[in-house]
Amino acid sequence: MWLFVLRRILYAVPILLGVSVIVFGLVQLSPGDVVDILIPPEAPKEVADALRARFGLDKPVYMQYLIWLGHLLQGDLGISIFTSQPVMGELSSALWNTFKLAIPAALLGMTLGVTLGTLAAFFHGSWLDKLFSATAITGVSLPHYWVGIVLVSLFAVIWNVLPAQGMGPEGFPSTWEQIKHLVLPVVTLSLIPMGVISRLVRASVLEIITREFVATLHAKGLFNRRVLLHVMKNAAPAVLALMGLQFGYLLGGSVLVETVFNWPGSGNLMILAIFRRDVPVLSGTILVLAGIFVVINIVVDVLQALLDPRMRR
Amino acid sequence: MLATVVTSVGLVLGLSNSGAQAGGTLRIAMTAADVPTTTGMPNNGYEGMRFLGYPIFEGLILWDLSSADKLADIRPGLAESWSQNKSDPTKWTFNLRKGVKFHDGSDFNADAAIWNLERFYNTKSPQFEAQGSAITRARNPNVKTWRKVDDYTLEITTDRPLSYFPHLLVYMLYASPTQFTKVGGTWAAYAKAPAGTGPFKLTDFKSRISVTLERFDGYWDQSRVAKVDKMILYPMPEATTRLAALRSGQVDWIEVPPPDAIPSLKAAGYDIVTNSYPHAWPWVMNIKKADSPFRDKRVRVAANYCVDRDGMVQLLNGVAEPSVGFFKKKNPLFGNPKEAYTFDPEKAKALLKQAGYGPDKPVKAKIMISTSGSGQMLPLPMNEFLQQTLAKCGFEIQFEVVEWGTMLVAFRNDPSGPPALGSDAVNISLVTSDISQMARWFWSGNAAPKGSNWGNWKNEEWDRLLGEIQTSTDPATIRKKVSRLNEIVVDEAPWLWIVHDLNPRAMSKKVKGFVSAQSWFQDFTQVRME
Questions:
Q1: What interface predicted TM-score (ipTM) does this complex get?
Q2: How large is the C-alpha radius of gyration of chain B?
Q3: What is the pTM of this model?
Q4: Of A53, A40, A278, whose CA–CA distance to B171 is shortest?
Q5: Which of B56, B163, B372, B516 could form a disulfide with B196, with the two C-beta atoms 3.0–4.6 Å apart?
Q6: Predicted pLDDT at A45
């Protein structure tokens, strides 16, 4: 088992290196450099050059990349070209803000998804199945930002019971003042994982309950609850993989939801860095997010292997 | 008991100082995507200057933002007065104001002023600030040397005579040298605890979330001590989010409400404040690109006769006014140009016919437009509207839609180079406050990529007149010649004159005392909360 985990971790190294090369390369494809955005053309050349030199933009791209990589190995993600603040500080605060949204959204979406999908499968063909399936499809189909705006209109503007935007007071969300800022974005963000997971759980459970071993379990006189446990265990690997992916997407930050709710998370930071060509922020953010994605996948792989020993091979 | 009586008497007699009268917190949603930088030379363009520039920091010369009825002009700031040397017009003497304190308690004097000039103009000084220097020097490219005459007298020399030099100095703001040393001598640390001389001091900074400014009771101009206790600024780039924040009571004031929401905001009891200000929303035409149809003056003029400006204003629910020149028509500097642009498709078609175009040969042009951006209003529907009206005269317009950063890169590079993406014009909003801005956009010596005359338009009479204005010291002559410059740009049409923004703001009824100055900048000191 440990060898399996080690192998997965080693796989992550070339993936992250590849991601970093692609990020650096893509940013170079866009016309002009960050200094063109930062300063008007009338700025004297010596000042523009000083700015380029300060951020190493006067060096060839491969050198810039290698220098960045060298700093990265020492745990330094560099300095934002726009704000002159360390990327690590900006990124950790953005990630923390995104965690505040993503974790409750994932818990809500996944719990609802598994529950609705399982019930829909067990009551296959009934009005309950139709209702839950329609809910799941609606969750997947409705555009995030539209749902967000509708929720804001209803709960913030018309009824004025929840805030329209922002995070409220800083810190771990423990007071009502903090929690009420979470409600609308979390509900909005949970819709897609809820819909996607619900659809997969329904399909997986439906497929499993028609298998012979389930009939055997029933024939042996097992209670429905015990049979459900076996069914869920068999459905778990595929569902876990999807949950891992969905959680990764949520941590990447939903740019649209963060925009509608003015939430300063990682998606917001990334889009800002793209628009500003702020390469250190962009590279750092994407690399850290890719790293988190890889870790989630390793965790999912390990969980799957624990549930199904065949997967360790 | 005695204290109560004394206080009551003081209040009745109006003896309390302006600080004690103050109260409340003003919460504003900006359109910026991030909190502008706070070192005293904010990024995020003029919105950055409006909120994180002038409220905290000041220049030797400031904008007079006290009136809503006339175009804002300059007034004394940290310098009480200034003069241009008659024998050597490149020398300017500034008499600095005494008794001005930075927020950290240190004095503003000639040493502090020189420390700031070194910060911007001397790359080898320990306080050199690369980003702030780049922005300041782009706006003040003519400063050559500086000298302390005495503790409260400063002399600055420019690289050539420049009559409008004071209009450029409003963009150079002064930070506290003492505070810089106190925070450890780095601008990154200074950004978290800056000190200027302005009516507000920064007390809390949360990147991408908010910035809190508090009233500075020790402000040198007691008539302009802020009336509110605090001003909290939120970056909120999405218009519908700003709207929801206002309507749910999370903020008291939003910049640029969506035009289609204005009737409902009015109906719900919010104040919509608009005023004319020196802003233009044009197409800057590419004269340099070899196959640009706008190289032909007749095509440029024809396009100007084919803009339905009233229709555009209607589309925008009245938050813009028609533009037919660099200066607005009511401005005495507008002059008497030959061309008086109206929506006249027949005249446009006749001009196009002269230029060799017709129904079988439409004018094909590609225009770079942005999805959003500073001062860009509603670029997509507005440009679609233009595309439809111009089609009636024989223009076949295509758009190159880019995000704001890409447009800035294009605008700051060669118009015939790759960043322009083959565009024949760029739709970018620009400042039209005074002659210094006019020189920036139209002087051939400032042609891109060296400067901001993106289209590379050149007119010899115009360049000659500008030179004469720069060396003149007679205000009447300067005014006359500036008028002529406007006449030339109207008749030669290097821009497609479309509309001027009216700078809409929406605010709750609790906000009182705001005077909407005809400027990109505003005075927040007189605002109070009820």
A1: 0.87
A2: 24
A3: 0.90
A4: A40
A5: B56
A6: 83
